[in-house]
Design a protein that fits this description.
- The protein is of the alpha+beta class.
- The chain has two domains: about 60 residues, no CATH class; about 250 residues, Fumarylacetoacetase-like, C-terminal domain (Fumarylacetoacetate hydrolase, domain 2), CATH 3.90.850.10.
- It contains seven helices and 19 strands.
- Helix 3 crosses helix 7.
- The chain is globular and about 60 Å long.
- The chain starts with 11 loop residues before the first strand and ends with a strand.
């Protein structure tokens, strides 16, 4: 949560996401817990189990949370959901990369700043075409170079979601210049809680999140794509792709890319996808990109209705 320095203060949240405790001993930040995971996890699980007592802990409501890892060492992602790529590139009349169905496209796209769950998203110029993108990510422990997809799950320590904010017009410019995605990614906003795969239970199967990511703009639902459908590559494959040439250090965040389903009845995980479908169906895009004053909310909802990681709520702010 917020406070305690640039890396925040580590807290443990009850299973019903209503109460939290600061561990009485051990790591003081999330990164410290990952650096010493083998020892820290037992202590943190003990604090978590103690919160079964409803009289313990402080209320989550009213608490101010920072990003779970305010200063991440490494953010990288792959394109797991190819319907996302097909729609946004199709809307621009661009072809997909060769062999895009055979091997995940992976890339590093900036790290800090990591925005808190409730944050203002800067928009210096509305022609930059601001968009939201719900993404599932995992936080790894130390994963050596050569880690295979089969070995990757043992290195996944925590799971979360983020709003992978994008300036679409700048992204197109960077790709056409052949540069990496940097200026088009001003930061990411994170849900307040990270959860271990074991704690997710049936919501985490075969390293995929069984949940719908509900995305709304100004209270209007734009989509609720499911993270466990229509994927071409899983997180273990993406981790294996990254570790072909380098190790991953503890605290690395590895994302799935924008959640997207082939069935448009699930709605859309970003505005660019919705506009791409509008162009393909009618020849013109109708839905506008985000403007100053717009509020975006993103939440991962499990099959039993649980909000798995808490709410992301971002308000677009014009920068003069």
């Amino acid at each position: 949560m917020a406070g305690g320095g640039l890396d925040g203060t580590l807290v443990v949240v009850s299973s019903d996401r209503t109460r939290f405790l600061v561990p009485p001993q051990g790591p003081r930040t999330m990164q410290q817990s990952l650096d010493t995971w083998a020892e820290s996890v037992t202590l943190l699980e003990g604090v978590f189990e103690s919160l079964d007592d409803p009289t313990l802990g402080s209320p989550v409501d009213g608490a101010v949370f920072a990003a779970p890892l305010p200063r991440v060492y490494h953010w990288a992602e792959g394109s797991s959901y190819l319907s996302h790529m097909e729609r946004i590139r199709g809307g621009r009349g661009e072809a997909l990369p060769d062999r895009h169905r055979e091997r995940p496209i992976v890339y590093q796209s900036g790290g800090a700043p990591n925005w808190p769950p409730r944050a203002e998203v800067p928009l210096p110029d509305e022609t930059w075409e601001l968009d939201y993108e719900p993404t599932v990510f995992v936080v790894t422990g130390d994963a050596p170079q050569g880690t295979t997809a089969a070995q990757a799950p043992e290195h996944i320590k925590l799971v979360g979601i983020t709003n992978d904010v994008t300036y679409r017009r700048l992204l197109v410019e960077e790709r056409r210049q052949g540069t990496g995605t940097y200026g088009s990614k001003p930061g990411r906003g994170f849900a307040p809680f990270l959860v271990t795969p074991a704690t997710l239970g049936t919501a985490w199967q075969n390293s995929f999140l069984r949940a719908a990511l509900q995305c709304s703009v100004n209270g209007t639902l734009y989509g609720a794509p499911r993270a466990d459908r229509d994927f071409s590559f899983g997180l273990p494959q993406i981790i294996g792709e990254f570790t072909r040439t380098r190790p991953l250090i503890a605290g690395s965040m590895i994302g799935t890319g924008t959640i997207s389903n082939g069935d448009t009845e699930c709605g859309f995980g970003c505005i660019a996808e919705k506009r791409g479908v509008e162009i393909m169906e009618s020849g013109a895009a109708v839905t506008p990109f985000l403007s100053a004053g717009d509020t975006v909310t993103i939440e991962a909802i499990a099959d039993d209705g649980t909000s798995l990681f808490g709410l992301i709520q971002h308000t677009v702010t014009r920068m003069e």
